[in-house]
Amino acid sequence: MDLAFCGLFLPSCCTCYFNSPHCETCGKSMQARYEKVGRMDINRVTKEKREPIDKSYYICQTYNRLGKNACTSHKIEARDLYNLVLADIQKHARKALQDSDAFYTQLTKKLEQKQNVDEVSLKKELNALTARNQEIDQLFMSLYEDKSKGILTEHRFVVMTEQLEQEQTQGKTRTQEIMETLSRVDDRSKDVRTFIEEIGQYAAVEELDEAIVHRLIDKIVIGQIHVENGEKVQRVKIVYNFVGEIKKETT
């Protein structure tokens, strides 16, 4: 295994392949630590020689520097984190290969919920604003005609045109906002397609390296260990490039 990828601060290599996982509580990066003592070089069960990653762990740097009053350790074994990330990539890569359309729908739906964007409603509103803007242009022409014919007084003409100008300005501002939002929606769709193409290449991957992780993952956030139903649980948030965290689907 590539020691650079293991993320260990060893004399021969000081590169962290996860680009420093972050503590969920304080937001600081996690430090990779190497236990030189206390762990045998041979696995007692498999009798295989332990790799450096098997004697290493990540710990919150705030806790490491300032103690438990500043933050908790958020400690996670390097091997456990490696296995978790590998399994998550494999799972999503298989989805991308087996049914890319369903995976695309899942991811875009998640992003819509996150951004609170209703694309259909926005397009309806945009069409209504466009139609109203055209109506206002026609009303301006009618007002000028009525004024020139003496039907409208100067005062009445000024009041009505000011009202229409204000409405039209507000409408144009809202139109621009909607167009920018819809543009981001289009970009989001492209990002999802890009991610599916990227991760689909790794459905058969059996071992991670630095290039794979940096290509697919933006950051990793490590939660605090807590107890649920009598068992220790630790949340690990994997934030992928282009699409963010991919949460488990709920029915």
Structure description:
There is one protein chain. The chain has 251 residues and is an alpha+beta fold. The protein folds into 2 domains: 3-98 and 205-245, no CATH class; 114-197. Helices cover 52% and strands 13% of the residues. The chain is built from 7 helices and 9 strands. It has helices at 3-6, 61-66, 78-98, 100-115, 119-148, 154-199, 210-216, and strands at 22-23, 30-34, 56-60, 76-77, 217-222, 226-228, 231-233, 236-240, 244-245. A 4-stranded mixed beta sheet has the order 1-5-8-9. It has a 3-stranded antiparallel beta sheet with strand order 2-3-4. β6 and β7 (231-233) form a beta hairpin. α5 (119-148) runs antiparallel to α6. The longest helix has 46 residues, at 154-199. It is elongated, with a radius of gyration of 29 Å.
